[in-house]
Amino acid sequence: MTEPTPHPKLEELIAVLEQLRAPGGCAWDREQSHESLVQYLIEETYELVDAIESGNRDEMIEELGDVLYQVIFHSDIAAEAGQFTLEDVAAHMTAKMIGRHPHVFGDAKADSADDVIALWDDLKKVEKPTRTSVLDGIPQGMPSLGLADKLLGRAGKLGLVDVGAPATIPLDDEEELGGLLLAIVASAKANGLDAERALRSTLRGLQAEIREHEADAAEFPAADAN
Predict the structure, then answer these.
(1) CA-to-CA distance for 116 and 103, rounded, in angstroms?
(2) For 159-208, how does the pLDDT look when each residue is reduced to its tens digit (9 = 90+)?
(3) Model confidence pLDDT, tens digit, residues 101-159
(4) DSSP string, 97-130
(5) Domain 8-84: what homologous superfamily?
(6) Is the CB of residue 109 less than 8 Å from the CB of residue 115?
(7) Would you kindly state where each structural domain of the chain is located, as residue ranges?
(8) Nearest-10 crossing angle of helices 57-80, 34-54
């Protein structure tokens, strides 16, 4: 591996946060906890998404900084409580990324993006042996459309959804897709229906179907293989 590049401005930011939370610093910063900061982490994350989608360089710098600050903030709270430090977070992530990329740091072969994803899936099974379902690890608080995309991908791996089948609704681009989604939400609103709740309800049904399929496969593995 190459020599790490010095990051004086990052170290300065860490020092600023430490001073704010130190005795004699900022009373508000001292009072924060992991739980109280969740709302800001969510807000800053969505603001970063907006900046990325706008393509504005200065906004991206600002919003990436806000998200980075949240990571440093949480780490400082944990360090004060004797739980872990920012160095622990970085060390864990470094080890994770090296372990997840044996095709770069080891002898494994992965020549395409699909090969990499298949390799990751195998590695995750080894890393997290307590996970018994393809649904484990999926945050239920995700926006419903993102959750739907994630669940359809997992259902496809089990053969419950044919991800290679022709599209039920042919679409040329995301602009057309956005118009269709907006029309669906507008129709739901006109009929007094909650589109978000309706999709989440359907996704709960899909997750139940996935778990039922997994239970059947575990009970009758030979039949599932056929």
Answers:
(1) 8
(2) 898 878 888 899 999 999 999 999 999 999 999 999 999 999 999 999 99
(3) 999 999 999 889 988 988 887 888 788 888 888 898 898 888 999 999 999 999 998 88
(4) HHHH-HHHHSS----SHHHHHHHHHHHHHHH-TT
(5) MazG-like (1.10.287.1080)
(6) yes
(7) 8-84, 143-225
(8) 160
